[in-house]
Amino acid sequence: MTFSLPIAAEANELLDRDPLALLIGMVLDQQIPLEKAFSSPWVLAERLGHAPTAEELAGFDPAALVEIFAKPPALHRFPKAMAARVQEVCRVLVGSYEGEAVNLWQDAADGQELVKRIASLPGFGKQKSQIFTALLGKRYAVQPPGWREAAGAYGEEGSHRSVADIVDAESLGKVRAFKKEMKAAAKGVPAQ
User: Fold this and answer.
1) CB proximity list for 48: less than 8 A, separation 6 or greater
2) C-alpha–C-alpha distance, residues 104 and 90, integer Å
3) For residue 155, how many other CB atoms are within 10 A of its CB?
4) In terms of Cα–Cα distance, which of 136, 139, 163 is closest to 7?
5) Pick from 111, 118, 169, 171: CA 20 to 30 A from residue 91's CA?
6) Low-confidence ranges of the chain (pLDDT < 50)
7) Whole-structure pTM over 0.85, yes or no?
8) What are the residues whose beta carbons fall under 8 Å from the beta carbon of 189, sequence distance 6 or more?
């Protein structure tokens, strides 16, 4: 399935063809708009002159990587922390998955194992791991047995809870409305 986020076509195309770019987008998807998070892998590739590999990012000079992340417009509102997080994730990929993001998910025996693998990455808690499992299942046909259940409510067919459910402007609006409701509920105030 093709990514159709409201970002540059080149950024969507990179997410479609490069599993590491997809994973980096998910790493960055916190405390910034999802459009920014999922377009930043393309911006990173532009700044490097090529789509990076996990080995390259794992071995990158940390200060130099921070400079690349911080160059205006910054890839994230916390460029230092997120450059380090991306590098940490890439080091796990190199150490445990032969440097290939796709190896993180391609042979998972079931949904629970998939969520467990994702949750072992730096910065991936339960919710983020479930969202990424749903994204892989709904957009990339990574569907080991029990993936929907392992993804929790994010795996539900027809839901509009996360980036996994965005296929057009209408679904983006529904996801934004859901997130607004959740934030309001967390604060104990009714959504506007």
Assistant:
1) 68
2) 11
3) 25
4) 163
5) 111
6) none
7) yes
8) none
Phi and psi torsions of 120, nearest 5°: -80, -10
Tell the residue number behind the tokens 């990339």, with chain if given.
140
What whole-number distance in Å separates Cα of residue 75 and Cα of residue 31? 12
Domains with residue ranges and CATH for the chain:
9-155 (1.10.340.30)
Amino acid identity, residue 86?
V
State both tokens at 106: 């391609």
170 class by beta-carbon count within 10 Å (0-12 exposed, 13-18 middle, 19+ buried): exposed
Residue 179's closest CA among 163, 156, 168? 163
Nearest to 65 by CA among 101, 95, 91: 91
Distance set, CA 78 to CA 23, 41, 85, 145 (Å): 18, 15, 11, 37
> Got the DSSP string for 72-133?
SSPSSSSHHHHHHHHHHHHHHHHHHSTT-THHHHTT-SSHHHHHHHHHTSTT--HHHHHHHH
